[in-house]
Design a protein that fits this description.
- This protein folds into 2 domains: 3-180, no CATH class; 188-386, Aminoglycoside 3'-phosphotransferase, Chain: A, domain 2 (Alpha-Beta Complex).
- 44% of the residues lie in helices and 17% in strands.
- The chain contains 13 helices and 15 strands.
- The strands form 4 sheets. A 5-stranded antiparallel beta sheet has the order 5-6-7-9-8, sandwiched between helices. A 4-stranded antiparallel beta sheet has the order 1-4-2-3.
- Strand 5 and strand 6 form a beta hairpin.
- The chain is globular, with a radius of gyration of 22 Å.
- It starts with a helix and ends in a 7-residue tail after the last helix.
Length: 393
């Protein structure tokens, strides 16, 4: 999430200062004060808006390489050359100095800060320490520790899975640490790696892990529980979102009736935000893993594949992609192994939309200081996605 988006949604500077004051103090085991005001004294940290990171002047080679690799690769052919050039230039020592803007000051100075990067997120911050090869993840001030708790529950038990293990964490879930992954985000995968094969590999690795923990369940039971939870959530949201909540309540009942036509449903652990930005690929492309498990929950076993293949986190054109899938059209090679007939796909799409609405309402309500316009946008998009009566037919 870009810093500009965070700044438009929340009092980002105040949240950043409070979060980093606490995080640096815990990390160094001594008080550190972070201030974002222009007249503050102390160690200067800069922000590069396009690269989305905070750093000190004189950032080290490992930090610069990370920033370059996180930006300069793209899957769009027409952008490859200019994006490579821009990302490489911005991540040089002169580029970071010239194109960074003052962001905050730390007092006393954080030692060995040239090895560090601070990466802001939706509900969390990451402190990357390239000297130690570790990343510390902390919740942003005011956002609670639920996302950290979920990550620890999934990745902190010492079990093998499609995720990097958590190395250590605080008993109060105020932070956890993991190794810095040496590779790329699938969303920023270099052109010389086989992206389509890696997409298929990532979903295969995830679903193999899920299948070992999945169970077949009665569709009436699964759909009924989901619809009841949604109606309760919409009832709580009615005062906030007005008429939109009423329209969604009607759509939930319509979609639930359609979803009950499925002959069987399999449920299991779900990543919850299965998109290329949350898949990491090793430098040679031989291994993949999933990060950001904060939306983990039990869902239908097809949910993550549909989120990924239908690009559900990209709202533009999503209605058309879901309807094409429901009608049996070829929407993605990643869905080619599923039944092609609309008799199965219509109820499968209806169940997916119910789970998407469940995800959207949870995402809208999770940050306690999310702005009303952002929450309204999420629910309004869900109304548009669900469509008019008969739209799925």
């Amino acid at each position: 999430m870009r810093v500009s988006q965070l700044e438009s949604r929340e009092p980002f500077a105040e949240i950043l200062a409070e979060t980093l004051s606490r995080a640096f103090s815990e990390w160094l085991d001594r008080p550190v004060e972070v201030e974002c005001s222009p007249g503050a004294a102390g160690q200067l940290w800069l922000l590069q808006p396009l690269l989305g990171a905070f750093y000190v002047p004189g950032a080290g080679a490992a930090a610069r390489r990370y920033l370059a690799d996180a930006f300069r690769h793209t899957g769009e052919a027409w952008r490859m050359a200019p994006q490579w050039t821009l990302g490489t230039t911005l991540a040089t020592s002169p580029g970071l100095r010239l194109f960074g803007r003052p962001a905050f000051r730390a007092r006393p100075a954080v030692p060995d800060a040239g090895h560090l990067l601070v990466l802001p997120g939706n509900r969390r911050l990451r402190l990357l320490d390239f000297g130690r090869g570790t990343s510390r993840v902390v919740p942003k001030a005011g956002f609670g520790a639920s996302a950290i708790e979920t990550e620890i529950a999934v990745r902190g038990r010492g079990e093998d899975g499609p995720f990097p293990p958590i190395l250590r964490y605080a008993a109060d879930c105020s932070w956890f640490e993991e190794a810095i992954f040496d590779g790329y985000s699938l969303a920023r995968c270099p052109a010389w790696l086989p992206r389509r094969r890696l997409e298929a590999l990532a979903l295969s690795v995830l679903e193999r892990w899920v299948s070992e923990r999945a169970a077949r369940r009665d569709p009436d039971e699964v759909v009924g529980q989901l619809a009841e939870r949604l109606q309760q959530a919409l009832g709580r949201a009615e005062a906030r979102f007005g008429a939109a909540a009423g329209g969604l309540s009607e759509a939930v009942e319509r979609l639930a009736a359609l979803a009950r036509r499925l002959p069987a449903v399999e449920t299991g652990p779900s990543h919850g935000d299965c998109q290329p930005g949350n898949v990491l690929v090793s430098r040679r492309g031989e291994a993949v893993t999933f990060v950001d498990w904060e939306h983990h929950a039990e869902r239908t076993s097809l949910y993550d594949r549909l989120v990924f293949a239908l690009r559900a986190r990209s709202p533009r054109g999503l209605c058309g992609r879901v309807r094409s899938f429901a009608r049996g059209a070829r929407t993605s090679p990643l869905l080619s192994g599923l039944p092609a007939g609309s008799a199965w796909r219509r109820p499968a799409a209806a169940l997916f939309l119910l789970e998407e609405l469940d995800w959207s309402l949870a995402a809208a309500s999770a940050p306690p200081i999310v702005s009303a316009p952002e929450g309204t946008r999420l629910v309004t998009e869900a109304v548009r996605l669900l469509g008019r009566p008969g739209g799925m037919e």
